[in-house]
Here is the input.
Amino acid sequence: MKFFSKINFDKLKNSLSKTKNSLVAKIEEIIRTSPEIDDETYEKIEEVLLTADVGFAATEIILKNAKENYKFGNENFSEIVKRELLNILGSVNSNSAHFDFANFRLNESHRPFVILIAGVNGTGKTTSVGKMAYNFKKNGHSVVIAAADTFRAAANEQLEIWAERAGAQMIQQQQGTDPGAVVYEALSHAEKNKIDVVLVDTAGRLHTKTSLMLELKKIQNVLNKKLNRSANETFLIIDASTGQNAIQQINEFSKFVDISGIILTKLDGTAKGGIIFQICYNKKIPVRYVGVGEGIEDLQPFEPEIFVDALFSN
Ligand SMILES: Nc1nc2c(ncn2[C@@H]2O[C@H](COP(=O)(O)OP(=O)(O)OP(=O)(O)O)[C@@H](O)[C@H]2O)c(=O)[nH]1
Ligand SMILES: [Mg+2]
Here is the structure.
């Protein structure tokens, strides 16, 4: 089940064009110009994978399996690499509960369905909240957005614009208020008015700043206490152009909140999308959505097979 099922393949493909150039196109070029697939070919491919932030562990396993498989068949080597890349993404993402906005049915015992959003500064949290609100609304669900970024000046105004675009309600308090109080008010409002979905936007915070991370944990505690259960989802928003630092962000945020999935934003415009392989292979946290642009329609559910097809498609 996905929150929304429609993937705009062309949009995805276009947004991945730089990553394709830095990763798949280079591998294909190496294969095309190698008289035979030998150690030199593997070394060149290894270099491309490492440079594209696929990470050591995933690179090793991709090459090991590709070598094994190549021995047995006369399959096109590029197809073998493609399949190994897909295996890396599929291994962690196959079992994860996806959500289809279109087919999303609220379990009454889980009303409201709550999604907590976290991440470092500027990764695309507010934008992703706006995009999700839009998708839920479009499919007939009532949505309340909790403006729990009470830290940044103009955070409320920015979120208000998104709420209006999406046609969602928003609960806000003054700048400087305890973000937990906003979450509490939003959940009370949602319970009283039988709202389907609550999206909690939080302030950007540096993963290395313990005081800010403890504040996030506190938000989660307030939420858990009020709901008498945990949020249905806690999404960490990672900017794809971050590269290697994404792994540190995941490590640190995981110490303070229960991350259920990742939204990888800004895939458009970066050549560093290869980080998705390292995230999936090393962290075993499913990528749930990808951001492919700044517009309200530019959040897509992440489907490993479609993603890899888009990377390899001409
Ligand atoms: N190209 C592109 N830009 C994006 C995407 N998602 C977000 N952005 C842009 O990234 C910038 C920051 O987005 P915000 O949503 O404000 O990020 P934030 O995480 O809420 O930021 P803070 O609250 O300040 O931590 C904005 O200019 C967005 O338009 C995406 O998928 N693609
Ligand atoms: Mg924000």
Observations:
- The mean pLDDT is 93.
- The beta strands are 113-118, 143-148, 169-171, 197-202, 233-239, 261-265, 287-291, 299-301.
- The pocket of magnesium ion (ligand 2) is lined by residues 125-126, 149, 155, 201 (CB under 6 Å).
